[in-house]
Amino acid sequence: MNVVGLYGAIGWNVLISDNPKLLKQSEDSWTHGASVTLIKDGEHCVSISEERLSKIKYDGNFPRKSIEYCLSAGNLDKNDIDLVIVPSMANQQFYKNYINKTIEKKVKRYFPKAEVRIASHHLCHAYSSVFSCDYNEGSFITLDNAGSVMFDTSGQIFACENHSFGYFNKKKGLFKYYPGIPQTNNLGNYYWMWAYHIYVNKIGKEIQLTDPKHRETFCGKVMGLSAYGNTKEFKKDYRTHFEGIPQVALESFPGRDFNYGNLTPENKAKQLQYNFENAMLEYMKELKEKDYISDNLCLAGGVFLNILANSVLRKNKVVENLHIPPFPDDTGLSFGAAALGLFKSKEVVKLPHNISLLGKTYDESEIEDSLVDTKYKKYGDFDELCDVVSGYLADNKIVGWFQNRSEFGPRALGSRSILMNPTPQKNKDTINKRIKHREEWRPFAGIMLEEYQEEYFMDTYPNEYMLYSLIVRPHKRRELGAITHKDFSCRIQTVNNELHPEVTTLLQKYNEKTGCPILLNTSFNDNVPINNIASSGSFNTLSPTAFATNHSEGFEGFALATPAPNNAILENPQDNWVGIIDDTYTQGQPVGGYGNSVNSYRFRLNSFSAGQSAKLIWEKLDFSDIGNYQIKYDLAHALKNSWDGDVIQILASTDCGVSWNTRLSSRKSWFYCTA
């Protein structure tokens, strides 16, 4: 049987003419973490999140690219799929009465012969954890911000899944699920709402709470910020109720009973994290004491991306065996859905040995085809390659590492990673400025040979998937200067030859050269900064041949009014009209004294206030093979008012944006044109 788990927005704008109050939602949904999993003939084949292919952070739209990717990896046709399971965003009755047929119609465009089923959001989370663990029997808990929405008879949302638990026995085919009590134990929503408030307070700038790009970002950022605060003025912000089913009631939410006073964002973050950890610990202990959970416990849901809270549970040994999958967030829903579909058919999914590496591999020809316009050297011997790369790392170079199957889940785990020497403390700032563009308070993770864990860290335990944080031993903090956080913690991943032979070999070579078995490890991308800049993070390598004649970098191939070319970074704080124009498109106004230039780019900055600026940063260009070159710009500008004090500047950077040199800076007397 070929089973697909599919998670992503499926338009809710279908709607029900006789019930207009029901939620209307376009396909560009507030969902996030869209993904697809394919199980082929009872064996896991491939899993991928849409963001890895679309390059849109937390992409929650319908996963078209992921569908194509999975069918290709499985060497299957769309007609070969027998069953598709879709995690729901609403209660079963809503789907049954209204939009099941719409979802089925949408899915059948891609899988025409498949049976289509809908499953609970939390149930799919639970299956993702249960069927990625080694236990034959045990219990599970799902905690997140919100799962499937529940509607009353008038079409109003009155509750949603946020706390679920149950037990399983794979051999007996048992899976008992209790959806919990809606709107209680809502640790996920509590953290999410407070984290949003604290993050906005910290950066001094509003962000859209419902924007998919931000739905998870600020939670992780506030968790990192908490290391800079203290709990000297700690106020307990939760109550426990242990009559009947154990519950946790959170006392406050932003905008209501704000009881953190005038604390700094750092101290608010620390208070939030402390309340969150302790509430979860008390709750779990009580569940164990009353036998609601067993010593084999599986956890899933976005709450368990909080590695500090995970570490508290692990350190306090609430249960003997704790399993959190590498994909506890919504990314893992497709895996859980596919596993559910197979289990309902009396089969148990067969997994690869390393459950974090569920993407596909690429053969040499595919890799070489992708490098056709790039300078590279091929090494036939992998040990030699690792020897060369470890030498670069020892010389403090930044290395992009691409090996084996790709990761499934939010963490870089040694297959698609950026690696760097972890020792110089300044390396944290270096990699931030050159590549990652993250807030300065956020830590970087490490990857290490597992046999050295006790030598470097206190209170150690297996950490194959970077789900826990450890405290660096005092005498090792200087050696791990770039990855030791403010509170002396470190997010660490341990590897060995059995689970991850490629990166293990590299670490062994690096250890031989430096005496250090650890590297800084971060995701293989160019992060989106807080001002919502979009960047390809790629290098356009220009050969001498390209410059035999003039090389023109225009705007061909872009639709009119495209917000920004995908080979550029755009920062436009006032959201003025910015877009591509040609000689037939002027947005109703002339462009300037030169008229309309073909394939031009235009800012219309009507709404700017004093001191504000708009920036357009072109893609990185590699001129290393060029002896002599010139870069020329044609530009024109028209003042809105004769008294405006506009300045136009052109700057260039030769160190990937760490510093900039001004090439042109001119005021209105130079570039003023009559409009």
| The CATH architecture of the largest domain | Alpha-Beta Complex
For the termini, the CA-CA separation is 67 Å
The major β-sheet equals: 7 strands, mixed
Per DSSP, the total helix count is 15
Number of strands: 29
Estimate the helix proportion, in percent. 10-25%
Provide the CATH topology of the largest domain. DHBP synthase
Low-confidence stretches: 11-29, 528-566, 580-599
The average pLDDT value, as a whole number, equals: 78
* Name given to the CATH homologous superfamily of the largest domain: Carbamoyltransferase, C-terminal domain
Taken together, the total number of domains comes to: 4
Shape, principal axes of CA atoms: globular
Beta-strand proportion: 15-25%
- CA-based gyration radius: 27 Å
The oligomeric state is single chain
Query: What structural category do the secondary elements indicate?
Result: alpha+beta
- Assigned CATH class of the largest domain: Alpha Beta
Q: What order do the strands of the largest sheet run in, or round the barrel if closed?
A: 15-16-21-17-20-19-18
Please explain how this structure is put together.
There is one protein chain. A hairpin with a 4-residue loop joins strand 9 (163-169) and strand 10. The chain has four domains: 3-132 and 329-344, Nucleotidyltransferase, domain 5, CATH 3.30.420; 187-321, Nucleotidyltransferase, domain 5 (2-Layer Sandwich), CATH 3.30.420; 364-403 and 411-523, Carbamoyltransferase, C-terminal domain (DHBP synthase, Alpha-Beta Complex), CATH 3.90.870.20; 533-675, no CATH class. The strands form nine sheets. A seven-stranded mixed sheet has the order 15-16-21-17-20-19-18. A five-stranded mixed sheet has the order 3-2-1-4-5, with helices on both faces. The termini are far apart. Helix 5 runs antiparallel to helix 7 (265-289). The chain is globular and about 75 Å long. The protein has 675 residues and is of the alpha+beta class. 25% of the residues lie in helices and 21% in strands.
